[in-house]
Amino acid sequence: MGSLTLTITLSDILALVGIVAVIFITYYIVTTLKKLGLMADKINSILDTNKNNIDNTLNTLPKLVDNVNKIAASIESKGDEVGDIVSSVNEVAATVDDIVSAVSDVVDVFSQFRSLFSKKKFKIKR
User: Fold this and answer.
1) What distance in Å separates the CA atoms of residue 60 and residue 68, rounded to the nearest whole number?
2) CB 54, CB 47: distance < 8 Å
3) Hey, CA dihedral for 98, 100, 103, 109, is it positive or negative?
4) DSSP alpha helix (H) spans, the chain
5) What residues contact 47, with CB distance under 8 A and at least 6 apart?
6) What is the pLDDT of residues 81-106, one digit of tens each?
């Protein structure tokens, strides 16, 4: 009987490695798509469960934006009023400083007069 010879070439090994790689990649893609499908189902379930809440929130958003715009306008107008009040207070403070300075000068003058007269004693000669 004759002997059986098996010859494996480099192209056979590369073909085998290629087939294994294609099988692995196909398995990975199928598994990933399956997980994505499960995730999409969960997301749909959550959206269905919360549909009323989502609709209410979406209906409320324009009102909220309106209120925020009103508040911003109010703050802006109050800011202008506060700026006017601050400038008025600064003017009053400057006036008070001027008055205090003037009163201080008058007090100094009176102190000088008092010290002038208290140092000299007037004697009446007879």
Assistant:
1) 12
2) yes
3) negative
4) 10-49, 51-119
5) 54
6) 777 777 888 888 888 888 888 888 77
What's the N-to-C CA distance of the chain in angstroms? 176
Measured on CA atoms in the order 113, 115, 119, 124, is the torsion positive or negative? positive
Overall pTM surpassing 0.70 (yes/no): no
d(C-alpha 49, C-alpha 57), whole Å: 14
d(CA 31, CA 24): 11
The Cα-based distances of 13 to 9, 10, 103 in angstroms read 7, 5, 109
Tell me if 47 sits within 8 A of 40, measured CB to CB: no
Per-residue tokens: 106? 């008058």
Residues 10-68 pLDDT 10s? 999 999 999 999 999 999 999 999 999 999 999 999 989 999 988 898 888 889 888 88
What is the chain's length? Answer: 126
